[in-house]
Amino acid sequence: MAKTSGGAHAADTSTTPGSGGFLDSYFKISQRGSSVGQEIRGGLATFFTMAYIVVLNPLILGFVKDGDGKFLGGGDAPNLPAIAAGTALVAGVLTILMGVAANYPLALATGLGLNAFVAYGIATRMTWADAMGLVVLEGVIILVLVLTGFRQAVFHAVPAQLKIAISVGIGLFIALIGLVDAGFVRRTGTGPVPVELGIGGKLGGWPTVVFVLGLILIVALWVRKVKGAIVISILVMTVVAIIIEAIAKVGPTVVGQNADGSNKINPAGWNLNVPAWPKEFNPISFSTLGEFNLFGSFARVGAVAAILLVFTLMLADFFDTMGTMTAIGAEAGLLDEEGNPPSTQQILIVDSIAAAAGGAAGVSSNTSYIESASGVGEGARTGLASVVTGLLFLVAIVFTPLVTMIPNEAAVPALILVGFLMMQQVKGIDWDDLEIAIPAFLTIVLMPFTYSITVGIGAGFVAYVLIKLVRGKAADIKPLMWLIAVLFVLYFAIGPIESLLT
């Protein structure tokens, strides 16, 4: 999820606040110094700053094969429109629920970082249904923690700076995925280094030009504070890519041999989607809905590994939501004297349901988006703005068949930008305190270097406990942190243990 520019915004006094009427009384529009017009503008702004997820989620989830060699929602071939439709549907329904049940200007959709973890860290080890089952379990567990109040124990068990390191590491991981998917960074196959710039250390090909221009455009729009910068960049570069493909006939990336044994090589082609207007539009599909197996992962990877995967999902999802809802409340001036937003319990309940709903719909965990701050900047102060945003997501379902015409090179510059925004949090880590700096460093670097979010989190947690023990500060370690560290030790030792027992 991208970070928007901060800063409190006063309500738009140029618009007369609503007086009377069902909407005004239900959403407390006048009471919060807003108006129906402000709420509609806020809902529109939030949608256009986060609508990119309808495009990016299919590109992140759609091309990854699970442990059985199958694609999500498409069997033996990617089914991007179905993933896009499911993404828009869940985002729409849950954002509307947030507005109606919690009366808060907060929108939800599939979480960036979370979806990458599900795709690359979970689904490759089991079936997609098993992976989404873990997402559903994570959402249910968070809901129980919220309802019982146990969330405070979980929240305080993990040091705050380790939580920051997790976000930073995920940001770097997302950026690396973007660079690789664009062909800007590639595996060498041979040589002293595992990756290199472009092809043979040099950039080349029209797809790379589209990616570089897209990155320049999205950065320029972002620093100019243009609302909807990510969506604008994706749309503009998709048009450019379609024109280039129509003229240059670039074709897809191919490295291999023809049936007759002759070489078939086009390393400078489009990496995933070839940009072109679809020859035919298939009916809107929701084939990912219901693609989950609640406990299939336990049989596939074992109880310890499954529990750790659920816990990792929970960490990334749960803590992010706490920070997001507080930041949005501060932006809107809705926090109380203790820094809590109104209807905190309802907000957390809806967010927990969203996590489970995303898994049940086969589109990964849904979570609260910090992009909601853009709506607050336009005057949103109530849940009516969320209802507007949610309705727009539902309308977006109609356009999901078009997602197949968007090339990766036009979309992944957004991942680079999101990686940068998440990286900014690194300044919150005290690098002079070795007890936190070394675990944070391991967490951050091992995520992209091992292509595994789980490995980074596990290494950081184990290192934190180990350093505390070495320095004679075992009493500082929370009981839940002990349990987590032990589980991660078992996780890392599963291979050696299995070899000893066989």
Give a structural overview.
The protein is mainly alpha-helical. It has helices at residues 22-27, 36-50, 53-61, 80-102, 114-122, 128-148, 151-157, 160-181, 206-223, 229-248, 296-301, 303-332, 344-360, 372-377, 383-396, 408-411, 413-423, 434-450, 453-470, 479-492, 494-501; strands spanning 108-110, 185-187, 195-197, 254-257, 263-266, 366-368. β2 (185-187) and β3 (195-197) form a beta hairpin. α4 (80-102) packs antiparallel against α13 (344-360) and α8 (160-181) runs antiparallel to α19. The longest helix has 30 residues, at 303-332. It is globular, with a radius of gyration of 23 Å. The two termini are 44 Å apart. The model is unreliable at 2-18 and 257-263 (pLDDT under 50).
Name its key features:
502 residues; mainly alpha; two-stranded antiparallel sheet; 21 helices; globular; disordered N terminus
| Gap from first CA to last CA | 44 Å
Which structural class do you get from the secondary structure elements?
mainly alpha
**Topology as a string of helices (H) and strands (E):** HHHHEHHHHEEHHEEHHHEHHHHHHHH
**Estimated helix fraction:** 55-70%
Strand coverage percent: under 5%
- Number of beta strands: 6
